[in-house]
Amino acid sequence: MTITEASAPEGLVIVGASALGLPLPSTGYARQAYGNVSVDFGPATWLTVGGDGAVTVFAGKVEYGQGIRWGLAIAAAEELGLEPSVISVVLGDTERTPWDIGTFGSQSTRHTGVQVRKAAATARQALIELAAGRLDLPPDQLICRDGRMASMADPGRSVSLGELVAGQSVVREIPEEAPVHAPAEFTVMGGYVRRTDGLQRVTGRAVYAQDVVRPGMLFARVLRPPAYGAHLERLDDGVATRMPGVASVVRDGDLVAVLAESDQQADAAHDLLIADWSERAGQISQWDLPAALAADPHDPVVTQELGDVEAALAKAAHRLEESYYIPYIPAAPMEPRAAVAEWADDRLTVWAGTQRPFGIRGELAQFFGIDEDHVHVIAPEIGGGFGSKSIYRPALEAAQLAKLAGRPVRVAYSRIEEMTWATFRPAALITIRSGFDADGRITAWDSHAIHTTVDRPMIGQRGSESPYAADAIRSIVSAGPAPLRPGSYRSLGCAVNHFARESHIDEIATAIGMDPVEFRLRNLPEPRYRRVLEAAANEFGWKTVSTPSGGGAGVAVGLDVGSYAAECVAIGIEGREIRVERVSASIDCGLVFNPEGVRSQMEGAIMMGLGGALFEAAEFEDGHLLNGSFARYRVPRITQMPEVSVTICGGEENPPTGAGEPGIVPIAPAIANAVFDLQSKRIRELPLQRQLS
Question: What's the pLDDT score for residue 71?
Answer without folding.
Answer: 93
